[in-house]
């Protein structure tokens, strides 16, 4: 039925593709002709000059060997010597600093800075003074996100020493694709500044570069934050003998990460250490019934002790306040992906706020005292030695977004309020009520404030309308009186008892 057969092949010649031909050709330039010539200057001129020899001037000191001078010295020497010895052991001028500036008895606004290019849709989320105290940097963003961030934010700086300062336009502007929430100038280099964004990235900029200011970034990998970076700080690298700094970032994902600044040829921040805050760090008496031991707690703020650089205080979204140590040896957490082990830094828990803690600040004049504030509208003064606060104030000003100790007055601190005011307290005068109330904005929240540690009379505020104001404080608020540190110590010990 079937059999094998073979037939001649059939083929068709292409009707559209033609055969290609190749030709070779060469080209050469003409010979290059060169010439040589000598040039020499033929005219020369020599000139010389000499100053006249200066005769050495001899100073002659007159001598008075009269008996009247001898009698005068013998008469006044005992009294003068006794007074000098008394002055040497006196504490009357302890903490006194000579102020050559003009005296002022009122708080005045020296500058009102806005970045018109950002409009009024963005808020001031963070402020930072550079290492010389002449430049103020502002982070533009928003704190009221309900979903993923789609804002175009910016980093802006103004040099207050510039003669032609433009209060409506920043001297330097860096555009970002996500809200910038935290800033910190380098403690020594006035052009280096670190920042944290809403999407979890940590950036490092060099404002002295003309083309590309972004020096390094953490990116968005496994080691980066997964929630907004709420706090940025610079810490001394312990391996550099006090010569280099590292970047510390705290985020809503519960992580506190330590980044190594890369060399010039690299653009990636390298993760070298870190911690994580989980509900297991909270005493059982302070936990909610639904809280599990392996759930992360968002970190909102932190502050290091000014005397013990291994000690810091954390504030959390749940209202918890924790004393932590960089030397904590807690077991590493196994349910978090990271190239470095992350353990709990908590060594002690304080009585919590009711709601998120927005700001924590350790005293520069007392190793155990720190201030906190948050959404519950209370200001609290804690000591590292006990869980309960020493002092609790309720200024009835809505949310309290930022709190800072004065860098020059041990008993003075300031608070930025949700109803648009800056409250300045002086515990030497009054423990309960502020001694100065400044209306910063028209009932709009003031989100941040920063003292200028190099120019003691300046403090900056930033509000929800994107306005920065530079305030000059009165001499009463910036001149330290006698025994203020002793009074602060007495407050800590008396309230603790």
Automatic annotation (TrEMBL):
Recite the UniProt keywords alphabetically.
Cytoplasm, Repeat, WD repeat
Task: Give the Pfam families listed for this entry.
Answer: WD40
Q: Matching Gene3D superfamilies, A to Z?
A: YVTN repeat-like/Quinoprotein amine dehydrogenase
Question: What is the name attached to this protein's record?
Answer: WD repeat-containing protein 34-like
InterPro entries (alphabetical)? Dynein_IC, WD40/YVTN_repeat-like_dom_sf, WD40_repeat_dom_sf, WD40_rpt
Q: What is the lineage of its organism?
A: Eukaryota, Metazoa, Cnidaria, Anthozoa, Hexacorallia
Can you tell me which residues the record assigns to a coiled coil? Answer: none
Give GO BP annotations, semicolon-separated: intraciliary transport
Q: Where in the cell is it found?
A: Cytoplasm
Any one GO MF term held by the record is: dynein heavy chain binding
Record carries keyword Repeat: yes
Record SMART domains: WD40 (SM00320)
Q: Which PANTHER family match?
A: CYTOPLASMIC DYNEIN 2 INTERMEDIATE CHAIN 2, DYNEIN INTERMEDIATE CHAIN
Gene Ontology terms: cellular component: ciliary plasm; cytoplasmic dynein complex
